[in-house]
Design goal:
Length: 359
């Protein structure tokens, strides 16, 4: 973390920048920092490299569409206390730091990541814990940020301990990109300090097979060995990972390291990311290619987080060709058609149910 590359001259001594990248590093919004770990920089290829494009700003980052938003998921409106977002009845998201090893150029929270002054202190944490005590419907707490693993082992353990002291909290989720951006952070000391607070789910964020290094594999193996249930939330990015072959290669590697693909996200409409966003149709096409040809364990849900704060919706490719009187015609992954027949009494019961339905 201390050796992160944050300045243009440091970056230029390591990477031969394109004009567009130089313009991006210099002209980017001052609110959204640039930083990358030496490890992540070591994965960079040329300017089109899928790892490099996630980390180095380019000139296009200065573009703002009139439909772009600062807080696309309206997280601030759903914050009953400063460092907690509560959108769904049973889950809440806790922001414990705004620091990250790498500032991903597609980050949804770029309005606040990198701002050291906005790091929550112990009184904010106490207010969040108090809210959890008062809101027993919350059973699942996401420890997020920024990247929570930017905190020390002892600080993280203290947060987990306070969360575990809330009787209604059943599971903890640690949302971290460290296995991708700083895998050396996943030490045996770290996993030993946290595993006593199980069940802890870890959600990480691999986007491309070029991030799948021996160091990253060791980080995932260590987490799984210590009993963490590890999942991956990728973000579809144009020209980086928005094709089925790349997603399959990535997800096969993740499964080999006991990390289950959980979400494939449509990139949120946050300002400065238009050049990284791909179409929703493309996401559906990728899923359609996966289903039937690739292990179901490796198929994530395709999610769009609704701009304005509606929460996540998931989309699936339409395999239903027609439906009439309990006769459902589907197409398989090769385009052949197959029929499923419902029993007549089920069809009848459905008919009455829909007649009775006052809607
Ligand atoms: C995404 C999100 C969650 C977790 O949603 P899951 O679908 O359970 O993974 C919880 N709270 C907020 C505010 C979120 O944005
Ligand atoms: S690690 Fe997560 S919070 Fe940090 S910049 Fe990347 S996407 Fe944003």
């Amino acid at each position: 973390m201390r050796h992160r590359v944050t300045r243009l001259d440091e970056l230029e001594s390591l990477v031969r920048l394109s004009d567009s990248e130089r313009a991006g590093v210099v002209g980017r919004s001052p609110q959204f920092s640039f930083a990358a770990t030496p490890y992540y920089v070591s994965l960079f290829g040329g300017p089109a490299c899928p790892v490099r494009r996630q980390a180095i700003p380019v000139r296009d980052e200065l573009v703002q569409l009139h439909t772009d938003l600062r807080d696309p998921l309206a997280e601030e409106e759903h914050s009953p206390v400063e460092i907690l977002s509560h959108r769904y009845p049973d889950r809440a998201l806790l922001y414990v730091t705004h620091n990250c090893p790498v500032y991903c150029r597609h980050c949804t929270r770029q309005r606040k990541v990198g701002d050291a002054a906005s790091a929550p202190g112990s009184s904010e944490l106490a207010a969040a814990i108090d809210y959890l005590h008062r809101t027993p419907s919350i059973r699942d707490v996401l420890i997020s940020g920024g990247d929570p693993l930017s905190l020390s082992d002892s600080r993280l353990a203290a947060i987990c301990r306070q969360l575990r002291a809330v009787p209604s909290v059943e599971i903890l989720r640690l949302c971290t990109r460290n296995p991708v951006t700083l895998p050396q952070r996943i030490t045996s000391q770290l996993v030993d300090a946290l595993r006593i607070y199980h069940p802890i789910y870890v959600n990480t964020h691999f986007n491309h097979p070029r991030e799948c290094t021996p160091e990253a594999a060791l980080a995932l193996d260590r987490l799984a060995d210590a009993g963490f249930a590890v999942g991956n939330q990728m973000v579809l990015l144009r020209g980086i990972n928005d094709d089925a072959a790349t997603v399959i290669e990535l997800n096969r590697w993740l499964l080999r390291h006991r990390c289950r693909p959980y979400y494939m996200f449509q990139c949120d409409p946050v300002g400065g990311t238009a050049h990284l966003r791909t179409s929703i149709a493309r996401g559906l096409e990728i899923l359609d290619r996966l289903r039937g040809t690739f292990s179901g364990l490796g198929i994530p849900a395709f999610a769009v987080d609704l701009p304005g704060g509606g929460g996540k919706v998931t989309l699936t490719p339409d395999r239903l060709v027609s439906e009439h009187e309990g006769r459902y015609v589907f197409r398989d992954h090769r385009g052949r058609e197959f029929t499923y027949h419902e029993p007549p009494e089920v069809v009848q019961a459905e008919k009455f149910a829909s007649h009775d339905d006052p809607r």
